[in-house]
Amino acid sequence: MIDYRIKPKANYSEKIGELVCMLEHSRDVTLSEISNFKKSDLDYLPNDSSNSIGSLLSHIASIEFVHQVVSFEKRGLTNDEYLKWGAALELGDKAREVIRNHSIDYYLAELSQVREKTLTYLKSKEDSWLFEENKWGNGVSYNNHYLWFHVMEDEINHRGQIRAIKRLLN
Length: 170
Fold this sequence. Notes:
Strand order of the largest sheet: 1-2
Oligomer: single chain
Helix content: 55-70%
């Protein structure tokens, strides 16, 4: 059952616990949307330029992975990491070609594995970490709080796309 209250999660500092609560709520809602999908549902393309539900789920996992690397490890993706996640990150033609023929269990495992790593990392951080500032290569400042807000924002956005595709399936 989904809890509709934002409150700090146990074993985290206060603000990080609130962030974890929001990340988990967003994920619970996403999972409730996709739980009964078949491979054909996950691979369905409404048109030639659409992304499949499976690709969107892999994209959600890939965005979270990239934000782990950037915020926790303070680096960019390695070549091997890009080979693994690149199609999911970029979506489009490459994703339509390579992200297919997976069961719902595949995507659930991918989402879960990435999330477990996020939760482990977040347990080691204090609230002040959220406000640590860095700069992108173009000189634009960001903080860790924004990065993790973006992970949640991106999932919610793509869940909307999943819901739209789901309506077309029905």
